[in-house]
Design goal:
With 251 residues, the protein is α/β, with parallel strands linked by helices. The protein is 32% helix and 18% strand. It has a seven-stranded parallel β-sheet with strand order 1-10-9-6-2-3-5, sandwiched between helices. The protein has a three-stranded antiparallel β-sheet with strand order 4-8-7. Strand 9, helix 7 (203-210) and strand 10 form a beta-alpha-beta unit. Helix 1 (9-31) packs across helix 2. The structure holds the ligand O=C1O[C@H](COP(=O)(O)O)[C@@H](O)[C@H](O)[C@H]1O. The ligand O=C1O[C@H](COP(=O)(O)O)[C@@H](O)[C@H](O)[C@H]1O is lined by residues 39-44, 66-67, 128, 130, 136-137, 166. It holds the Pfam family Glucosamine_iso.
Amino acid sequence: MRLHLHQDSETLGRHAAKEAAAWINECLGEKGFARIVLSTGASQFEFFNSLIQQPVDWTKVEMFHLDEYIGLPESHPASFRKYLKERFVSRVTLKAVHFVDGERLPSDILDELEKAAGKGPFDLGLIGIGENAHIAFNDPPADFLVDSAYKVVALTDDCKEQQVREGWFAGLGDVPDLAITMTVSSIMSCRKIISCVPHEVKADAVGRTLATEETTPEVPASILKTHPDWSLHLDSGSASRLPIRVRGGIA
Ligand SMILES: O=C1O[C@H](COP(=O)(O)O)[C@@H](O)[C@H](O)[C@H]1O
């Protein structure tokens, strides 16, 4: 794990986007294309603002979408497709885009994504961490073993409450019950993982993720510590409850 501490979310987003672009360019130099997985959420705003300004030949980059609600129209403010289209896909010209289209029949979209994902390794995963330490919609207790690329999940109340708190939905009853998520094993198969985790509201999740060297399904993001190339970007808010053993290591 490489831990990067930044003063604020804007600096965090800029540095993480530079790191992502440098790695994508390395992949383009190595094999002529790159396959990237993108997450969404308020925590990724500054990253995307900076990513679209990076010197990358996006026409050689294939994008996979991390997760999406089932049955939520793309016109809804909480739609992750809407988010990605507005903040990234409409701003650059990509080689290919694989959305998790939650308005289609789940079995059809799962089949298509499985085939597309199976064509080769993901070079980069941009993986946010939720307030309950979820990665994508793998909420605690997360299944670390399922080996499909994506799966359907039932959203927990905890996860729904987080979405309401962030202002994406008016109330708990408005949050869909089901979603399609990239699985933990598929996320872990990315050659490189970058996590942008700004804001004080994530301090507890970050603290619990790094508390010990152990991994536990109760803290889904803890599995990221076992990835050979995981870069974690924090700001002063999210880093405010770092465990002493980690603080000691970076002092
Ligand atoms: O639910 C999710 O959580 C993470 C973090 O989201 P945020 O709204 O707290 O920024 C997000 O990156 C991921 O795509 C999504 O599944």
